[in-house]
């Protein structure tokens, strides 16, 4: 059962923000496949994703709707981010697979959960931990005129990117290039799978954003909930610099078994 959902939001009036809410779904069991370990709460597998104590490799299954494949540049940036923060001596592999549209957009998180059940094939096996990422062909039903959801982490090894929203934003005048937006969203949402901030990984210092659960209050950190356009994350993306984790978040991950 998943407990939380964290979403990366773009607010076009004055800031970039991430909103958080709670959702619940019933666990499901398919005969012959033990899915239990992949149906836990967000952040529950943080140390397993970070360290090699139980899992020495990681299998990331990216399922995308036809026409919404992630760019190679974003995948390269994403894999580098993971390698810099985790201990996986047997490697991290990323497998991509195209699927047809579900026709359900705009999506509720419950509909994303149903799609995961229909399309996910990779689950923990032996010393390999599996992660599922779905790239949707539509938007979140929670989108508002000036606030758009780019991605959500909703279980211990599950997350979604809203591909149509990313495309729309990337096509706006003076917007960052699409691959940089994809990279920022992938890294941010995986930060929540890593248990940041204080959603499975214990903070080593006081850097939690009291107004935005699951986020960091350190300036320019990848896990911040909101940063003004003029001097924050969008400037970094526009310059080709993908936002990075701040030192406080990195210390949290290191204490939980990561790099």
Structure summary:
Helices cover 27% and strands 23% of the residues. The chain is of the alpha/beta class. An eight-stranded mixed β-sheet has the order 4-3-5-7-6-1-2-8, with helices on both faces.
CATH H level: which superfamily? Collagenase (Catalytic Domain)
How large is the count of helical segments?
A: 7
CATH topology: Collagenase (Catalytic Domain)
Which class best fits the helix and strand makeup? alpha/beta
Helical content band: 25-40%
How many E strands?
8
CATH architecture: 3-Layer(aba) Sandwich
Radius of gyration: 17 Å
Number of structural domains: 1
Characterize the biggest β-sheet: 8 strands, mixed
Question: What is the first-to-last residue Cα distance?
Answer: 28 Å
- Please list the strands of the largest sheet in the order they lie side by side: 4-3-5-7-6-1-2-8
Signal peptide: 1-25
InterPro entries: MetalloPept_cat_dom_sf (IPR024079)
Organism: Salegentibacter maritimus
Protein name: Membrane metalloprotease
Structure characterization notes:
The chain has about 260 residues and is an alpha/beta fold. Helices cover about 25% and strands about 25% of the residues. The chain is built from seven helices and eight strands. Helix 2 links the parallel strand 3 and strand 4 (about 90-100). Helix 2 runs parallel beside helix 5. Keywords: Signal. InterPro entries: MetalloPept_cat_dom_sf. This is Membrane metalloprotease.
């Amino acid at each position: 059962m998943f407990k939380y959902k964290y979403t990366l939001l773009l607010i076009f009036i004055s800031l970039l923000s991430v909103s958080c809410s709670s959702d619940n779904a019933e666990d499901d069991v398919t005969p012959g496949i033990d899915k239990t370990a992949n149906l836990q709460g967000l952040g529950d597998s943080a140390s397993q994703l970070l360290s090699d104590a139980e899992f020495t490799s990681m299998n990331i299954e990216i399922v995308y709707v036809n026409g919404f494949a992630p760019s190679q540049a974003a995948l390269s940036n994403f894999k580098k981010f993971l390698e810099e923060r985790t201990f996986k001596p047997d490697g991290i592999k990323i497998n991509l697979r195209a699927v047809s549209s579900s026709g359900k957009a705009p999506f509720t998180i419950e509909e994303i959960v149903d799609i995961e059940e229909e399309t996910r094939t990779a689950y923990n096996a032996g010393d390999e931990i599996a992660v599922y990422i779905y790239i949707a062909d539509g938007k979140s039903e929670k989108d508002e005129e000036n606030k758009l959801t780019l991605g959500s982490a909703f279980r211990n090894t599950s997350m979604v990117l809203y591909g149509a929203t990313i495309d729309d934003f990337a096509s706006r005048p003076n917007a960052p290039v699409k691959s940089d937006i994809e990279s920022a969203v992938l890294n941010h949402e995986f930060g929540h799978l890593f248990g940041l901030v204080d959603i499975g990984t214990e903070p080593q210092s006081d850097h939690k954003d009291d107004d935005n659960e699951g986020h960091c209050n350190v300036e320019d950190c990848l896990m911040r909930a909101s940063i003004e356009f003029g001097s924050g994350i969008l400037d970094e993306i526009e310059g080709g610099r993908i936002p990075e984790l701040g030192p406080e978040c990195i210390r949290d991950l290191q204490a939980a078994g990561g790099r």
